[in-house]
């Protein structure tokens, strides 16, 4: 069963354009568009054109040099006569795309996704002349419904909702609409679907697969396998993203004296204990930091870093050589730094590139765009050194990320095809290990056999084990949550800039949470009617009482719910703040922030309901009473968070005033 009230992480644009205090929505709109016009993103373009041709930033060596962004009513190719979006709407979307590109160098496909979803908003806003200043939440809901028909949209429902929410947030933050756009993407990310009863959670690794991975780590011997296994071992040492590991700097190790209460920590022999950490560059809005490694995993991490350095040393030397000789590609002696006009025979080209003897020189040259020299004949091929080096330099892919590091300063450098020796290693082209290299190592794909399949490590059904790199991150986050690591500490350790994203990595089951709640009850750290009854009972009866009263527990975005869903559905769904089963986790920053937001929304809604009372609208009094109860509940929750006499981490059950009797629609005052 999915957990009620879970907040979902959404993609955000952080634009420098925000609402100006005292300005009208129209003035804010004009300011936003002006920022878009003046931006330097995409270089020199004609802003008012409805088709932009911009430089493509794809990393594929044979990729197109140019991409296209079409601000048209329908998806189009190169038709300059294709109907353009209405000017006010088009100017807004153009500014969104250009400011997003200025903030983060995105792929052309990402911008086209934004434009494709924007066409939905354009299609449903004809009644308001496609004017962004007149958009409302209902405009976004109509766009979502249009997407569900499939007539205009082939993207997944989750991505459509994500982009709609992003656009709504931009309109609100920039003050372009008179009222807040309160659209929320309610479609869960496909990989984040909560498992049902009896289902295994696909985001968590199978324990047998982890045991098989440990066995495989003892069996690997070939350098390509050893390199990838050490990367996987680093994943197990802390809550990494795979990209953070792949972009580690070569000088990543950090040693720092360990202290406690300002005093140095010493081992049994009186020597200073050193903390061990790994410096990384950060991603997804989290700035670079040091990830401190738990003591039990320090030896594993240090061995992994040391062996990775050894296996990548040759590639790093080549990268350093090319940085000392800009514009020249590395060739084997005696061809290194030869005159660009020197002519090489096919045999000399093989020696210069250290190609496998079985490699066909002609085929290799054609594949890598090395042109024939003008002195070639029908039977004898010749190649100019300058042309060879130019082709080799063109095969170097850009390294993703914003860190200003030289190629030689990265840890995980490899020679081209080092991980696929069947193609023949090319020592002149230096790559950085990619995530698909590790992904294929842990899970078979096509003709790429995983390490489990190559060592015949299989489950009880005879299938080779499989793992995903992100499953290990989920596993470590769950262990940290079960061990009581705080929300802020867990987010920092995991490299997350928003602690609300911890929610996605919380895989504690209802029974595990119930165990925690019972432990708090037994140690006197639970407060409320259940705790009061527990303390009045004879000690011999308390265990059975706690097992019945706290059979299952699940988390919500404002606290914990102690209702036993196994015996009955929730009678107060959507009214957690006015329910005795709702419990506040004192000091939880995520819960508190959500309560403050909900309180503000309830106070606004209550004010509107009171206006309807003044107009004598039929049934308005029912809404006024409900919203008053909810406002009161949220205020009591905040009072619990602010109570200095309650220890952080204590669980406090709510007491509605007056107590609710029966279902929400039957609630009555006592």
Write a brief caption for the model.
The protein contains 21 helices and 16 strands. The chain is of the alpha+beta class and 670 residues long. The N terminus and C terminus are likely disordered.
Give a verbal description of the structure.
With 670 residues, the chain is of the alpha+beta class. Helix content is 41%, strand content 9%. The protein has 21 helices and 16 strands. A hairpin with a 2-residue loop joins strand 4 and strand 5. The N terminus and C terminus are likely disordered.
Comma- or semicolon-separated keywords:
disordered C terminus; 5-stranded mixed beta sheet; disordered N terminus; alpha+beta; 670 residues; 41% helix; single chain
- Binned, the helix content reads 40-55%
Strand content: 5-15%
Would you identify the regions where 5 or more consecutive residues have pLDDT less than 50? Answer: 1-16, 58-65, 660-670
On the 0 to 100 scale, the average pLDDT is: 78
The profile of the biggest β sheet is: 5 strands, mixed
Cα distance spanning the termini: 34 Å
Helix and strand content put the structural class at alpha+beta
Evaluate the radius of gyration: 31 Å
Number of strands: 16
Strand order, main sheet: write it out: 12-16-15-14-13
Tally of DSSP helical segments: 21
Q: How would you describe the shape?
A: globular
